[in-house]
Amino acid sequence: MIFVTDAAGQITYVSPDWCAFTGEIAAAAAEHGWLNSVHPDDREIAANFLRDAHAQQTEYTFRHRLRRADGSYAWVAGGAVPSFGPPGRTFLGYLGSLTEISPSGSEPLTAYGTLARYVPPPPHPSTMPGSTLELVADHLLMAHGLIEQDSAKEMLPVLRQALVMAGVLLARKITEPDSGDRFH
Description:
The chain has a 6-stranded antiparallel sheet, sandwiched between helices. Helices cover 35% and strands 25% of the residues. It has helices at residues 16-22, 26-29, 40-56, 132-149, 156-174, and strands spanning 2-5, 11-14, 60-67, 73-85, 90-102, 112-115. Helix 4 runs antiparallel to helix 5 (156-174). By secondary structure, the protein is an alpha+beta fold. The chain has a single domain (2-174), classed as Beta-Lactamase, CATH 3.30.450.
């Protein structure tokens, strides 16, 4: 499930697989509405953690329970990479993804996050990207994590440019007339 935030940290895009997974329309996730789909016990932890990540404008990884369309909860892992643009590396927001890691939200786990690092978990069949562009964004996010692990940091500037472009294209795609239930 791909998502995009603006510089204020508010959701401006969720992929159709978010809607299918949660049973919510995309507009319900706008701004901070996505928190309504987070397990009540994880909601405050998520809001505080993401507020800290946004204040530091750093990449992050976060695990929490997310409500499915049938009302049950599943553990998801996700995270995001910040996007910066001109002038002067202005913070634009985040491009991120969520992946189901456990089909039940009843395991004895806790919600938590890690700042300054995002390594996406492997894709899960229930949260596969819905379009080619979303799949590309997902792979770019995975490549970002792998490059940092492999000490190929010379590639990071180019990869970050590609991440920014993926976010721009996703935002542009949802403003087109046939964008359906997506929003911007």
